[in-house]
Amino acid sequence: MRSGRWRRRILAAALVAAGGLPAWAHNGEAPGGSAPNVPPTLGPPAAGPQDPQQPTAPVPRATTGGQDDAWRRWWEVQAPLLAPARIRVTTDGPLGDPPPPGPRVRTLDDAAGAEVVPLLLWAIEPKQDFPAAVVTACYRALGKLGRRPEHAEPLLAAAQRRDTDRDETETALGALGLLRRTDPTRRLDDGMLARVRRSLALALDDQNLTTRARCVAATSLGLLADQGGPALDVLARDLWSRLSANWASDEIPAAILLALSRFPPDVVGEDLIQSLRALGVTGMAGKSRLGPVARGHAVLAYARLCPQPSAATLLAILLSRRHPDPVRLGALTGLGLRAAAFESGTRVDVVRRVCALVETEPAQSLFRPAGLLAVARLAAADLDAGSGAVVEGSGADTFLFDGLASADLGMRPFAMLAVGIAGRRTPKAVEVRGYHTFRREALERFRKLLDEDRGAGEARGAYLVGLGLFGDEASIPMLAARARDGSGTASPRAYACEALGLIGRAVPPAVDTLRTVASERKGDGFVRGKALAALSRLGTGADVVTAMADELAEGGAGWRLAPLADALGRCDHVAAVEPLVRLVRAKPTKDDLRAHACEALGRLCDPEAVPSLVRLAEGAAEMPGHDGLRYLIAWLWL
Q1: Which of 67, 89, 147, 197 could potentially form a cystine with 410 if both were Cys, beta carbons 3.0 to 4.6 Å apart?
Q2: Beta partners for 96?
Q3: Please, what is the Cα angle at 242 between 241 and 245, to 5 degrees?
Q4: What distance in Å separates the CA atoms of residue 58 and residue 170, rounded to the nearest whole number?
Q5: Rg of the chain (C-alpha set)
């Protein structure tokens, strides 16, 4: 365990006043970069110096490793953006129902203020002397839930420490970015916001920190970019000016560019947006030449920020073989993300060219999954605009359906997800004749796969999610049967449960099945968690929450109880708060289980309808990643 002496110094440092934005210098790469053992995104890690002593991010519980698992990592990160909004139970968050008449119902927000935040502050007190795993879990939760300036003080103090546990420093830097709030009434005041940004900027410039810590600091500045406050345009310009330093690797520049991509376009300005495009094409930032990963993120930032991005420009970058693959991937991903900004005829042309390009790529090329996802986004945007041109005249349907039968088992699940994304039901899509043709053929293929139960377990999970995204009520009996079938691997059962929740119909076959699976005391924790989350999406399951809470109270091995704590953190029920709080405070609780409970409380009471990190990872998950982003994305699995 760590000495309480250092912890007392950290909290004492929180009392030191600091304010105003500094005159930031341009510093170079810190020695001892990073390539930790964290789950990769679709792309390989960025090149850079290695540090074998780099602390590692928490390993996502649902990750089993192997190429076939990549789709799961992508889906779990993107699900909050793609899935229909769930019903939030007893919460006053933006997705909550109007309060019922009569006495006021206790909400998750009430519980966060009265119980959870005080608990987190208690757990990080030096006299508790909890290990780093518990402290970092509390930092993450406090970043999500802190509601007053004094709640940010411990995070500021820990972020400024340089002689403490490196994982605590990195987590505190990331947690400062989680102080972002969509609701203006919850945001930090300008003075505290300036202090937080100053602390992050100093960390970004600190060559004594690890590369990963500096990447996390840059990323947090991006997370806070939409909060307003003083001198935000100055911050954008100063971040841009850092790119001209003599960097030893692409990781920190890529993090800076990703941060810039989250700034409001009017703050960044047209000249800087066009400079991002030029950087992607030429690789030159001032007199410095940046590497391919940073250039790829520059192209993606241009696509995100430009009010009217040029499809011709992005296509030219994508199709030019003289550009490195990460640069072309940035253009491909940008075309998908900004699909709604293009005219229907432009979308058709883009899809045709993307399909032709992907067919020429090697089997293991990163352009294949990224191309499937881009085509799906383009098709979905076209349908949502009331047009059937893409699904009827571009070859997108054939391209996506052929992917379902691909011999490459690593790519096939991405085709299944892509079909699900393209075929989601929207008010305008249902008015398009071509949509119904596409949907009918897709459902026939998905149901055949479900009925025959063919393919690897990982791939089966992908088409189950696809059925859920389609909202296919006719598949409920088959999905319920699959969820109850304990003879196979855990993944298909888990995603059959998730699909039942995505469909969103609280009919007896779905609800009864999910309750049965969630109540299986000997069942796999991952499967039970998916079942409970699905029940919460359907607006039911309070009885299962109580049953799981009783299991926690009974005690037992940490490996068995940790998945229960994780599941309660995803259930959206205020009834889950008390048992998790008890678990954290109980002296006999093992520290690894205590950390899981703190993570669960942060996730359970998070007031953001869509977590900030999800927004940051949209599109960036398809890119060759920088290490800080992969570290932060791993938090989404906790």
Answers
A1: 67
A2: 88
A3: 115
A4: 13
A5: 24
Among 29, 486, 446, 475, which residue's Cα sits nearest to residue 218? 29
pLDDT at residue 33, as a whole number = 32
Alpha helices in 405-456 (DSSP H): 412-422, 433-452
Among residues 625, 615, 626, 503, the alpha carbon closest in space to that of 77 is found at 615
List pLDDT tens digits, range 87-139.
544 333 333 445 455 666 889 999 999 999 999 999 999 999 999 999 999 99
Which pLDDT value is given to residue 480?
Answer: 96
**Adjacent-strand bridge partners of 88:** 96
- For β-strands 284-285 and 288-289, DSSP reports them as antiparallel
What is the DSSP-derived secondary structure letter of residue 88? B
> In the predicted model, what is the mean pLDDT of residues 21-30?
30
The angle, 0 to 180 degrees and rounded to 10, between the axes of the packed helices 166-177 and 149-160 is 140
CA terminus-to-terminus distance, the chain: 22
Average pLDDT over residues 616-633: 85
**CA atoms within 13 A of residue 208's CA, in its CB half-sphere:** 7
Q: How many angstroms separate the CA atoms of 500 and 380, rounded?
A: 22
In sequence order, the 6+-apart residues with CB closer than 8 A to the CB of 358 are: 365, 367, 368, 371, 372, 399
Question: In this model, does residue 497 exceed pLDDT 60?
Answer: yes
Nearest 10 degrees: CA dihedral of 527, 530, 534, 536?
Answer: 120
Q: Which residues contact 502 (CB under 8 A, 6 or more apart)?
A: 83, 84, 465, 468, 469, 471, 534, 537
> Which residues lie below 8 Å from residue 374, measured CB to CB, with a gap of 6+?
332, 333, 335, 336, 354
167 has which bridge partners? none
Number of residues written out for the chain: 638
The secondary structure of residue 339, as a DSSP letter, is G
The tokens describing 632, both together, are: 């932060």
User: Taking Cα atoms as reference points, which of 251, 256, 255, 227 lies closest to residue 239?
Assistant: 256
Q: Which of 28-37, 531-540, 544-553, 600-609 has the lowest mean pLDDT?
A: 28-37
> Looking at per-residue confidence, does 308 or 4 come out higher?
308
| Exposure of 632 in the CB half-sphere (CA atoms within 13 A) | 36
**264, pLDDT greater than 50:** yes
* Cβ atoms of residues 317 and 283 within 8 Å: no
